[in-house]
Amino acid sequence: MMNRFWKLLLLIVFIILTDQFAKAAIQTHLSVGDSEAVWDGIFYISHLCNYGALMGFLSEAPKYLRTFVFLYMPILAALLLIAMLVMSLKQRFYLSLIYSLVLAGVVSNTLDRATLGYVVDWISIKFGGFTFPTFNLADASIAIGIGIILVDLLIDLFLKAPPKDA
Fold first, then answer.
1. Which of 160, 165, 137 is nearest to 26 (CA)?
2. Whose CB has fewer CB within 10 Å in the chain, the N or C terminal residue?
3. Is 139 annotated in the active site?
4. Can you give the pLDDT of all 166 residues of the chain as single tens digits?
């Protein structure tokens, strides 16, 4: 159990530090709104300041509301995730992994909001005529954690046998 804890703690710290380092590099080398092609037509490094959530949700809301929703609520969520992570250490590994991935993403984005007042987004993906909303490594970590939950739910829903009637 403790071995799992230390590995997951290392993963959490690695995600937070990598995300923060990448954001600092973006802020140093690109002006806000600028973009550099990594794989032209598909993958770009951009510098955007996100004052809201995904796709700018609540970005125009009053500052007090954004502070509550994007700073105080994530701190409470992080505390809850820590408790869930500790409780999951004796259960299946993927549960601990989910909580670790989501916790790392929440903490890193909350650090941005606490220090900058916004989240630095920098990964831009375009495919054909579709442009995916710009995101960062913390967002990806949260999305992967949620994706694991969805896969588990689908497996439970479609692949496990229904309970037999008594």
1. 137
2. C
3. yes
4. 678 889 999 999 999 999 999 999 999 999 999 989 899 889 999 999 988 776 567 777 777 787 788 788 889 999 999 999 999 988 889 899 999 999 999 999 999 999 998 999 999 999 888 988 899 999 999 999 999 999 988 988 888 766 666 5
**Among 156, 1, 10, residue whose Cα is nearest residue 86:** 1
Q: Collapse the DSSP code of 121 into the 3-class scheme (helix H, G, I; strand E, B; otherwise coil) and give the result.
A: strand
In the set 34, 121, 156, 165, the catalytic residue is 121
Strands (E), the chain: 35-39, 43-50, 119-127, 130-135
pTM: 0.85
Q: What does each C-alpha distance from 44 to 34, 54, 63, 123, 140 come to in angstroms?
A: 10, 18, 30, 6, 15
